[in-house]
Design a protein that fits this description.
Helix content: over 70%
Low-confidence stretches: none
Mean pLDDT: 88
Oligomer: single chain
Strand content: under 5%
Order of helices and strands: HHHHHHHHH
Length: about 150
């Protein structure tokens, strides 16, 4: 248990091995020392992943062609949403870019176009997005599958 306390496995390892479930069950162990050690490990891992999730992702500048393409996408999304939603437009574009592994691919371009047309022509989706009723990731999923 002391070895586990020193290390924090990746999220993928935790999902594959389900070690988090095992540690959580061990918090209820009859032996108080084991339960206490498991509790320490559990909360250490939990706080680590919460902090990691809440940290903003670092935005790295890309080459000129990529930046121009992304800026054009932001501009058209902003026009589709309305001039007062620049932050939301930027957020939509950044999340879309992240979904496509930070590459300007044909799929990224198609998804950006679909987002723009969806926001222009489907008032209900636009209203929900602006009001925050529809998450940005849900909008991206809706437009990438369509």
């Amino acid at each position: 248990m002391s070895n586990l306390e020193e290390k924090i496995p990746s999220r993928q390892v935790m999902v594959d091995t389900q070690i988090g479930h095992t540690i959580n069950k061990m918090r209820k162990h009859e032996d108080k020392d084991i339960a206490l050690a498991a509790k320490k490990v559990y909360f250490k891992w939990k706080t680590f992943f919460k902090e990691k999730r809440d940290k903003p992702k670092i935005e790295v500048r890309s080459d000129l062609k990529t930046e121009k393409m992304r800026e054009a996408g932001r501009k058209f999304i902003k026009e589709a949403l309305g001039k007062h939603h620049k932050g939301l437009a930027e957020n939509i574009e950044v999340e879309t870019f992240q979904c496509y592994k930070r590459l300007i691919s044909a799929e990224y371009k198609k998804t950006i176009r679909k987002i723009i047309f969806t926001l222009r022509h489907q008032e209900e989706v636009k209203r929900k997005t602006v009001a925050g009723e529809m998450k940005v990731n849900d909008l991206i999923k809706l437009c990438s599958k369509a």
